[in-house]
Design a protein that fits this description.
Blueprint lengths: L1 H10 L3 E7 L2 E6 L10 H23 L21 H30 L5 H8 L4 H12 L8 H5 L1 E9 L6 H7 E4 L2 E10 L6 H5 L3 H4 L1
Antiparallel strand pairs: 1-2, 1-3, 3-5, 4-5
Helix pairs in contact: 1-2, 3-4, 3-5
Length: 213
């Protein structure tokens, strides 16, 4: 999934941010983008088809012993938000969803794989529980501190185009992205993967370019 999203960002220079969790990825275009003359159908179909084809193309790199059993498909939609705040709210919503889903799934499979419950019993055990209860089940019954689990699963994947310093000659791939000289120091705009909080201000304050142009 991350690889497919990176291919989309490499192909579309105006996609400055992507967030992935579970079976979905969200992409943020610069608000001034003129890609495909802002034609809704053209953008939607091309992004979706590129993501899907990349997912299939790279599958064997990550699961060499597990061939695809059927052709995967992804749907897509485009939403035009009126302001930067709505954009932030959207990505915050998706990261909250990542946390909710992962906490549930982590607790569910602990009950099944370590607790000996059937899937039906595990669903019943978790029915109506809140986040605090799931944390308590994980820690008291399975000695699992949910907050110590890898951030990739708790917070999802964040891909962002950032200026990174370049020493010596600029690699050909970096040149193809966006290489420039800032204060006599070469930098290259490259896609960087993070597993971090995008709900609080810190992430956005450090990258004002995401919402300003």
């Amino acid at each position: 999934m991350d690889n497919a999203a990176r291919d989309v960002m490499d192909e579309f220079k105006d996609v400055v941010l992507a967030f992935g969790e579970s079976d979905e990825y969200s992409f943020l275009f610069r608000k001034t983008t003129a890609v495909y003359k802002r034609r809704h159908a053209k953008i939607l179909t091309t992004i979706t088809s590129l993501f899907t084809s990349s997912y299939v193309f790279h599958w064997h790199r990550y699961f060499p012993e597990t061939p695809l059993q059927y052709p995967p498909t992804f749907d897509g939609r485009i939403v035009l938000y009126p302001s930067a705040q709505e954009v932030r709210d959207y990505f915050a919503w998706r990261q909250v969803d990542a946390h909710i889903n992962n906490l549930y799934n982590t607790t569910f499979w602990a009950l099944v794989q370590q607790g000996g419950e059937s899937t039906t019993q595990a669903h019943h055990t978790l029915k109506g529980t809140v986040s605090k209860t799931k944390h308590e089940i994980l820690f008291s019954r399975f000695n699992i501190n949910y907050n110590s689990l890898p951030e990739r699963f708790r917070k999802g994947s964040v891909l962002v185009k950032e200026d990174t310093p370049v020493e010596g000659e600029v690699p050909e791939k970096a040149q193809s992205l966006d290489t420039r000289d800032l204060n006599n120091s070469k930098t290259s705009s490259q896609v960087v993967l993070h597993h971090c909080d995008i709900i609080k201000d810190d992430f956005w304050d450090a990258r004002p370019f995401l919402l300003s142009k």
